Amino acid sequence: MLRDSEQPVILKGRVRLEQDTSELLEDYAGSIGISAEDLLNIVLKKLMANDMEFQSWLSQQNVQQRGSQFPLGLSASVVETEAA
Fold it and tell me: CA dist 72 to 21, 76, 79, Å?
């Protein structure tokens, strides 16, 4: 969760939507008083946060990425134990 003082980094990108989806996005965003871009960010974050299969996959990717940062294939627990 972001603190009030933290601002997200905004990147520009292109998303291709079906016309009816784009219109619904614009209509829904307008009905709740936010931009379509903000609504899309909210919806995507919520979708990914609630997808347990994706969260499991993401966790595995993070573990693998951290594991590859240690020399000689040492696990994170071994490196942390040695540093303590």
Answer: 50, 11, 11
* pLDDT by position in tens, the chain (length 84): 556 678 889 889 999 999 999 999 999 999 999 999 999 999 999 999 999 999 999 999 988 888 776 555 544 444 444 443
CB atoms within 10 A of CB 7: 8
Tell me how long the chain is: 84
How far is residue 47 from each of residues 26, 44, 50, 77, measured CA to CA in Å?
19, 5, 5, 32
Encoded tokens for 40 = 């899309």
SS3 letters across 61-76 = HHHHHHHCCCHHHCCH
Backbone conformation region of residue 43, classed left if phi is above 0, alpha if psi is from -120 to 50, else beta: alpha
